[in-house]
Amino acid sequence: MKKVVIKYGLLSAASICVLALAGWFLGKSLDYSIQEVIGYAGMIISLLFVFFGIKFYRDNENGGIVSFGKALLIGILITLIAALAFGILDVIYIKYINPDFMAEYYAHYIQEIKNTLPEAEFKIELAKLESQKELFSNIFMNFFLMFATVLIIGFIISLISAVLLQRKPAADN
């Protein structure tokens, strides 16, 4: 199981990093909402290695059987590797590759809510954002948010994969 988790975890991690970097650099001129969709799509595509890792374990390492619990565990462990890699990549991106990203995104978001909310609601929302700005500018918080995002999506994919791929030993008659 360990080899399968490491192999598919590293494949998932590599693909999530490549897709994220491609999205960041190739999609630089795109609207933030489109970039966000591309980012989530990249996470989902990369986390398909969870399904393939569980399937490989079941079919090639465990004689065609795997319990729901074991399949879920394998999926979560693969996801943890991808989530860790993506969290680290996000920190590198924000700290070294594009240190202005948070300020640019914040300014964009402020403009967006200013255009969509009435003045009174905008002032309330702006006050909330200002109080949270320091927290979300923290590098550890950025790591945690990206790690947790991948972990949640990966957990859902692990759950679905475990349901689809579980196979019990045939009952002897």
Could you explain how this protein is built, in words?
By secondary structure, the chain is mostly helical. It has one domain (2-165). It contains seven helices and no strands. Helix 1 (2-26) runs parallel beside helix 4. The longest helix has 30 residues, at 68-97. The protein is elongated, with a radius of gyration of 20 Å.
> Roughly what fraction of the amino acids lie in strands?
under 5%
The major pleated sheet works out as: none
Number of domains: 1
- Please give the count of helices: 7
Can you give the mean pLDDT?
Answer: 89
User: What's the alpha carbon Rg, rounded to whole Å?
Assistant: 20 Å
Class by alpha and beta content: mainly alpha
Helical proportion, percent range: over 70%
**How many strand elements?**
0
N→C terminal distance: 30 Å
Protein name: DUF4199 domain-containing protein
Transmembrane segments: 37-57, 69-94, 139-165
Keywords: Membrane, Transmembrane, Transmembrane helix
InterPro entries: DUF4199
